[in-house]
Write a structure and sequence with these properties.
alpha/beta; 6-stranded mixed β-sheet; 4-stranded antiparallel β-sheet; 9 helices; 34% helix
Length: 254
């Protein structure tokens, strides 16, 4: 089971912002998409999720074209955490997390929904603020609520026994160090449970410590992909990020 890009290109104003990208991200693994700003990472993630249709190439989720899934079945098997949330109503934090259960309404039952919401609130260290107004939370707290919503959406395995997929775009950007580390540990644990986890990330030491696979992007193309220890070498980081000198992504154990 995997999500695959097969020679995928996305073209804007006559210029490819993602050019002939071919890559497979496997279920049961935590894959990090890394590279400079504007390198094509978020575009690739959007194509993987089905939110953006490519101009060229094919996108497959567990062997099927992602566009072949109906909206509800896709929502039950993959969830997305974007860089920002457009939510502007004064819902309580647990109510925002509960929005993730919408694809399961009429299927799971109220008791199951309540159990899942409680579980994801606890998983994201939100129990103490579950009743707070979402709009009064800090940026990092809101991000944790948004991740809880995504977890609630795919907490139940799909009916066909296929993998659950969690896609995240810069999920650690607003988090403090404690919650950055906790999230990375959580993502790796979900992968160990068989989930497919794909995230755009910039903190290379955290990536090296926790990810199973790294895909490096440069100038709208996939530069290379492989194990973190092989991808995040000082010389390779220098090349991909156009640095003046080699950079060591030190991975301290947590």
């Amino acid at each position: 089971m995997s999500v695959e890009l097969d020679k995928v290109s996305v073209i804007r104003n006559g210029r490819p912002i993602l050019n002939a990208a071919t890559i497979a991200c496997d279920a049961g693994a935590f894959t990090a998409l890394c590279g400079p700003n504007g390198a094509g990472k978020t575009t690739a993630l959007s194509v993987m999720t089905g939110a953006l249709e490519p101009d060229e190439g094919r996108v497959r989720l567990d062997g099927e074209d992602v566009g072949a899934f109906d909206r509800l079945s896709l929502a039950r098997r993959r969830a997305v955490v974007s860089q920002s949330s457009a939510l502007s109503f004064p819902f309580q934090a647990h109510e925002v997390a509960a929005m993730g259960r919408a694809p399961h309404h009429g299927r799971a039952g109220q008791s199951r929904d309540a159990a899942v919401i409680s579980a994801v609130i606890a998983a994201m260290d939100l129990t103490a603020m579950a009743d707070r107004n979402y709009l009064t939370l800090s940026g990092g707290e809101r991000q944790r609520v948004n991740i809880a919503r995504a977890l609630a959406q795919i907490w139940d395995p799909p009916d066909d026994g296929q993998a659950r997929w969690l896609f995240l775009d810069e999920p650690t950007a607003a988090l403090d160090l404690k919650h950055q580390i906790a999230l990375m540990v959580r993502l790796k644990a979900l992968a160990r449970e068989g989930w497919g986890v794909v995230a755009v990330l910039h903190d290379l030491p955290l990536v090296r410590q926790h990810a199973d696979k790294v895909v490096l992007f440069k100038d709208g193309e996939i530069h290379s992909a492989g194990a973190p220890a092989d991808m995040l070498t000082p010389d390779r980081i220098q090349t991909v990020f156009d640095l003046a000198a080699p950079y060591t992504a030190t991975a301290e154990p947590f």
